Amino acid sequence: ARMGQSRKLDEIVSRLETEPLGPERLALFDRGIAEAAVLGDEGAGFELREGLLYTCMLMGRLDKGIPAIEWCLGRCDAGAFDVKRVLFQYKWVLEELPRHSEFSRETIEQGLDDFEARSRSAGWGPRGAALLRVLTNLTMSDGDAARPHVGGWQGAARDEGSDCEACEAGHLVRWRLVDEDYEGAMEAAAP
Asked: What count of other Cβ atoms lies within 10 Å of the Cβ of residue 52?
């Protein structure tokens, strides 16, 4: 079955289009994913999890985001979907991990290594993965661990795996403040 062939799934998807962020939106995703599984509709399940990942990141719900990204990556690994569809969501999940004390540095590093390998396999350059290492280390208040990756981030060409220019400007300001380069931070923040 595909979306369009299940009235129940169509109703859920339709409601998701207008449902604001909150517990009911999460519940709708859960119901939609369960219905897609009953129908054996892997494509709908993937699309719903993509939407769930975006919602989870906006709501800070890593508890729901991690299982969703794991499922999506597993389906990509099996060749069912292109990993490029969820690499940015994976990046968001990994960037959030250091804010939660239940994740060890080792677990975070393993995720970063996996992201870097998947990025390369997808044809992305090193910029996005290097920036992710900078950001996760900054979030862990470890400027010394971030420092070796700044050059890899700033020195690599922009590509589809790069953050937008406005986001990168903000990240550069953050780095320069941590590095106590206040003049450089002001320069990076200038319009």
From this structure: 27
User: How many whole angstroms separate alpha carbon 9 and alpha carbon 176?
Assistant: 48
Q: Which two tokens stand for residue 77?
A: 């690994």
Contact 21, 59 (CB under 8 A): yes
Specify the pTM.
0.90
Three-class SS string for 106-165?
A: HHHHHHHHHHHHHHHHCCCCCHHHHHHHHHHHHHCCCHHHHHHHHHHHHHCCCCCCCCCH
Are the beta carbons of 55 and 25 closer than 8 angstroms? yes
Give the three-class secondary structure for 78: coil
Cα–Cα distance, 126 to 156 (Å, whole number)? 6
Mean pLDDT by 10 residues, the chain (191 residues): 73 96 97 96 96 95 96 97 96 95 96 97 96 97 97 96 95 97 96 84
Tokens standing for 178? 């941590």
Which amino acid is present at 60? Answer: G
Please answer whether residues 138 and 178 qualify as being in contact, where contact means their C-beta atoms are separated by less than 8 angstroms: yes
